[in-house]
Design brief:
Order of helices and strands: HHEEHHEEEEEHE
Strand order of the largest sheet: 3-8-4-5-6-7
Number of strands: 8
Number of helices: 5
Helix content: 25-40%
Structural class: alpha+beta
Largest sheet: 6 strands, antiparallel
Length: 171
């Protein structure tokens, strides 16, 4: 009996891993959006909503209301337009399709290594404006003691040293 349970558990883990690997290369399909969006206006509507949350407080492991951590913020913004993102920046990095720095578009997710574990994904933001030459402005929930802000990449401090990559969730 125990042997069957172990085999079933291993098969389940294998199946989930294969499905996740296959789906990580696909664009997400929207569910029902919280608001009406005209065709072609998705990015503009999403970024306008993202802007309404500027100044919201940062709260570790928080989503909703007016308090967010970075992944809670991106999850809230994408949920508004009908897309469901993973709960953590690491989970969100597995969604959508990879995008090169020179191919970024408004609305792409951008990712950085964390401060505690510099080998794994630890932060996420949304491309707000593409400036060209690998430069962009992004909107994100920063860190404790700060709020949702728009910043520019590259910067001389934190973000340039930890940039990992970008993902396109829709288009």
């Amino acid at each position: 009996m125990m042997k069957k349970k172990i085999i079933l558990l291993l098969c389940t883990i294998f199946f989930v891993t294969v499905i996740e690997a296959q789906s990580s290369q696909k664009m997400l399909k929207p569910q029902k959006a919280d608001i009406e969006i005209a065709p072609g206006d998705t990015v503009d509507v999403m970024l306008k909503y993202a802007e309404t949350l500027l100044g919201s407080r940062y709260g570790r492991s928080k989503i909703g209301g007016k308090t967010f951590d970075c992944s809670g913020y991106t999850r809230e913004v994408f949920h508004k337009i009908g897309y469901t993102l993973g709960a953590s920046s690491r989970d969100q990095y597995k969604q959508g399709a990879p995008v090169r720095l020179d191919s970024l578009k408004r609305g792409d997710l951008v990712f950085w290594r964390g401060t505690r574990n510099r080998k794994s994904i630890g932060h996420v933001g949304i491309v707000f404006e593409v400036l060209g030459g690998g430069r962009f402005r992004f909107i994100h929930a920063t860190r404790p003691g700060r709020s949702v802000v728009i910043e520019t990449f590259p910067d001389p401090y934190y973000y340039s040293k930890r940039y990992v990559g970008a993902r396109r969730i829709f288009y």
